[in-house]
Task: structure prediction
Amino acid sequence: MNITRINHVAIVVNDLDEAIHTYHDKLGLTVSKRLVMPEQEVEIAFLPTGESAIELISPITESSGVAKYLAKRGEGLHHICLEVPDVAMSLAELAARDVQLINNECIPAAEGMGFFVHPKAAHGVLIEFLEPYQEEEQTDG
Result:
């Protein structure tokens, strides 16, 4: 498996505007992209940090998985995203190694296609594998 870089570190927050204020006004980061993902019931913002990014995630419904995560664990680190050139191949490799996965198939993500490794399989850390969309495939959310 060829992991090329850490694409982003995701932080779950109660209030996206408040978090953007903190990360922008106090830490000096700039939002490059903000979008709502209705299928995941979240709103997200990406703040580039060199070759990687911080992704801020906030629920838009009280019943979403992220809302449940917030209720149980509070704000903080949600997942680490590892970038790969072929996400389907990575999924197949990890499944063949009997790694506990959350997704048995690739799913749309904000910036490409991905899947998640269960935290129980990675010492308590939720890990996303992502194959970014090519520039011509990107759409404005």
